[in-house]
Records
---
Amino acid sequence: MVNNKSYNNVVNTLLRLGQYHDQISTISVGDIYDINLEKMEKFPLMHINPTSVTTGDSQLTYNFQVFVMDLVSEKSDWQTRQHQALTKLIDRENNEQEVFNQTLHICTDIISMLRHSERQSLLGVDDINEPIYFTQDQFTIEPFQERFDNLCCGYVFNIGILVQNDFQTCNIPVNTRGAGY
């Protein structure tokens, strides 16, 4: 028997992946305009924007845009001496390059956890060959910059989360009369 996964299951799993990632401070879900940067969210921030659900023969694919962003420091003293010695940045007045670097790593971590990780399994399920949620294909991770009250930058990528679905008709909440004319 297939254990069909709901929208809530998939979104909560994505939120939990963000919650468990040590570099992500805030997670949210909804329209991208729902992010309230004026409330001074803690950064780095991962935001999940649901876009669509597609059906297959025995699966559903939940499609999302995932944004990973952080604030850019525009102070001239953001670098440590060690950091200055190890890097040759063109613009030393802000840490935008470092923010892009860090947020890209977080994006690839999220993709990796859905492709290859034991984090796909529920507690007590030790078989990595039995994923509950997974993704496939290749990804384009696109950089972005936004100026709100502060300068924010990071990456966004589209991801499809595949789950099994047996499209059972036994438990549909309808009466037993036929619908045809």
Note: The two ends are 33 Å apart (CA to CA).
---
Amino acid sequence: MANLDKKDLGKRSNDEIFLEKFFEKNHRMNLFNVKRKSGKPKEGIFVPSYLVFKVDGDEVVSYLSDQSNDFQEALARIQENMELTGPRNQILLVGKFQNDNTVATLGLGDLQKTSEFGGQGGGNRGNAYEDEFLKSLQCEIECICEHTKYEDQAKELIALINKNQKIKGGISEAIKVGGANKPRPLNYSGGLYVTAGGKKTKDIGSTVSDITATFGGAKQIYLSCKFGNTLTFINSGVKTVFTDKDYKNSFKGYKNNIGSALFEMFNIDKIEYARIFNQYGKGYKGKIVDVTQKCQTTKIEDLLQYAIGYNYYMVHQSGPKFTTFEMTEQLMKTSSKLTGKVKLHYGGARGSGKRLDIHCESSKYKFMFNLRNKQGGLYPSHIMCDYKKK
């Protein structure tokens, strides 16, 4: 978005819109999106208390935001100032940024030309939930009093971030980046992990972000938007980890680090695992095996920590229920701490499916790992970890 200037105020009744915002008339909000070249913060949401007019460098008149009865007089002042050129003839706003007690004085050139003034909002398009939530965020950013599908949820999220982060200036931008999500394959280096942008790290905010919001022009906040009841932490291809030949040979002489780590971690019987697929449709009936005492609990928890990660806000809509919270490093550890049994379902829930399901849970989530073919083939193409919040 571009910034405002006096010429913009002379278009499409923008001078009246400017005053309606300042005086909070016609359901407009006394909030302005700021992006300036200098000062701290450079960006954010600004709440003005005074509207000041300067002519030839001298302050000639000012109005308080609660002086709406002076609307017409203030409008005449704006129109008068619009005819005056040069840096000594100014229309100024005096107030403070959100989350900031420091008083600032801003000129028109510090204010973003939001859609109320004919500007264009940012963001790309994608799935419906992310698009609708982004629209609600942008209405808050552009200080537009417009009813959107997730306006209450957007306000709730912004209030939570303001409370947690205390970033001067407040939210100044939100951009959809979901289409740029980086792949997160399984890898092995001293143990199994889920990569984040090709790195071995549990700080995954920038990797899993669907919408990245900027606060005060200084700090990026990553939003992971989830919709529905059952969600996924891991969705990684395994065709090169477990080849068709490996299954046909019942994993005799198998040496792949990733696959071997999975077998050991969950105490998977390799021969039984191969039988699921080699005998599929030939009367195979799998069983449920409790491996709680034999699996490598600490390593499972570590893998879950890489999958869950931290440094983002979860924004989850499930039916009428909306949940938002900051996934901190401590919450990641709590969420991955196993509390119940670990069970292997050879052949899935019915024992006759083309899959291995692994069930476990923490105090926060119920997890189900599964190895299966997502393209309709026989041998597994992916390992997934689905989860439900308790």
Note: The mean pLDDT is 90.
